[in-house]
Amino acid sequence: MKKLFPLFLCMCALVFVAKAQKSDSTKAIAHYKFSHLRDTTKPNDIYTENMVLFLGKSASVYKSFDRKTQDAMIRKQVAEQVAASAGGRVNVNVKGGRASNTEYFTFADQKKFIRKEKLLVNNYLIEEPMPVIKWHITNDTASFSGLKCQKATGHVAGRDYTAWFCPDVPFQSGPWKLIGLPGLIVEAYDTKKQVVFKFDGLDNADKLEKAAPGSEPGTIQTGGTVVKLIGMADDVDDPAVIALPSTGIKATEKEFTNLKAALKKDPQAFMQSAMAGSGATVRMAPGGPKDKILISQGPVINNSLELPEKK
């Protein structure tokens, strides 16, 4: 406990100045079905997730579409219960499926690549080197959902990838860290097809459901009642805007690793610290466990998305 509080308070002191990266307006939205063989001892147990890439003129963000769907379901349930409770107590119990808390921001003009990780109620921002991939563009072509694409091959994060990009869609971006081709990367996979980003459609920005004018991110307003959802406020609830959360906490890779270790070692103390930092408190339900917060240990992964480079 004594070691956890100084660590957490230190991280709180490093609030990232999001203005350093200018926000951008979403121009298009690309959808992908991501699949990854995480455990090679179970070749039929493949992790899958629906992902989305918000594309701006000079920035992009790649995130979980499944997570956005789950968050929307939670907001709906809270709004319904607030309306029905007439100001009384609201209890929400949502069993979500598997979904990633990691998001990847690319700010091309500033040559900045930032990974956002959510740990309980806080967002941590880890700046990584901008991916520089030596692509080899071939003359091979193929069509994906009516988009004529060209083939390229390249190496990134320990794997050799084949990528299909569309020169007619003028965004030099793609899913995850696959960027840098003269057109949107619509589909990609590694040599063994253990990691696959399958194209699932392209939408115009006019299909986005924009945030209501004057609404505060992370809040739900039903009638005269306003409910703030701790841990769900990204400060940018408008999908038409590509921007880092202003409440994001800047961290190095080592600092974030230490935070995850602290959470695993003492979940209860970590939660209390995190909630205190957000101005909230943790209260256990009557008759429930008084000193335990269960943290999932996660799946067995012996085939990480990023592999060490061979020397």
Helix/strand-derived category reads alpha+beta
What order do the strands of the largest sheet run in, or round the barrel if closed? 8-9-10-11-12-2-3-4-5-6-7-16
**DSSP helix fraction:** 10-25%
Q: Low-confidence parts, pLDDT < 50 over ≥5 residues?
A: 1-19, 281-285, 287-291
Largest sheet: 12 strands, mixed
Compute the number of strand runs.
Answer: 16
Reading the helices and strands in chain order gives HEEEEHEEEEEEEEEEEEHH
State the gist of this model:
The chain has 311 residues and is an alpha+beta fold.
What report would you give on this structure?
The structure is a single chain. With 311 residues, the chain is an alpha+beta fold. Helices cover 17% and strands 33% of the residues. The chain contains four helices and 16 strands. It has helices spanning 4-12, 65-85, 253-265, 267-277; strands at 24-25, 28-36, 47-55, 59-64, 102-107, 112-119, 122-128, 136-144, 147-156, 159-166, 184-190, 195-204, 219-222, 225-228, 241-242, 249-250. The strands form three sheets. Strands 8-9-10-11-12-2-3-4-5-6-7-16 form a twelve-stranded mixed sheet. A hairpin with a 2-residue loop joins strand 9 (147-156) and strand 10 (159-166). The model is unreliable at 1-19, 281-285 and 287-291 (pLDDT under 50).
Key terms:
311 residues; 17% helix; globular; disordered N terminus; 4 helices; alpha+beta; two-stranded antiparallel ribbon; 16 strands
